[in-house]
């Protein structure tokens, strides 16, 4: 993927558009990583049920904590998916798909071997 610095001699509007698209892709990547992490939420939530505990009180408190952690993780993902930025990106993608349905190549993890590493955002 080209960066903005590599195209410093290009049109400023093109550079801004490229930077915006790269930021959008990074946001979608972060959403994807959060959703992949969600797969392990239920197994982590029921882990205390499989462990032995010295008393029913510790059993209940550890299970209660794991349920609260799972609830927080789900709430965080829900907030990220329903944020204005996410809605805008998904609406833009749907509009693009409707306008040009052919020629959209599906993304594969092999296309970018470092896809699980979040990019440092510029402030």
UniProtKB/TrEMBL annotation:
Renumbered residue ranges of the record's region Disordered: 1-20, 92-123
Protein name as annotated: Uncharacterized protein
């Amino acid at each position: 993927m080209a960066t903005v610095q590599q195209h410093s001699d290009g049109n400023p509007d093109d550079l801004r558009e490229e930077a915006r698209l790269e930021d959008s892709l990074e946001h979608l990547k972060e959403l994807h990583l959060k959703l992949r992490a969600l797969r392990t939420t239920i197994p982590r939530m029921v882990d205390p049920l499989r462990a032995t505990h010295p008393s029913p009180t510790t059993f209940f408190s550890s299970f209660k904590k794991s349920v609260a952690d799972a609830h927080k993780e789900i709430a965080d993902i829900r907030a990220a998916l329903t944020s204005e930025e996410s809605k805008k990106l998904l609406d833009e993608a749907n509009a693009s798909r409707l306008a040009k349905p052919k020629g959209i190549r599906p993304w594969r993890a092999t296309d970018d071997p470092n896809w699980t590493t979040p990019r440092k955002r510029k402030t």
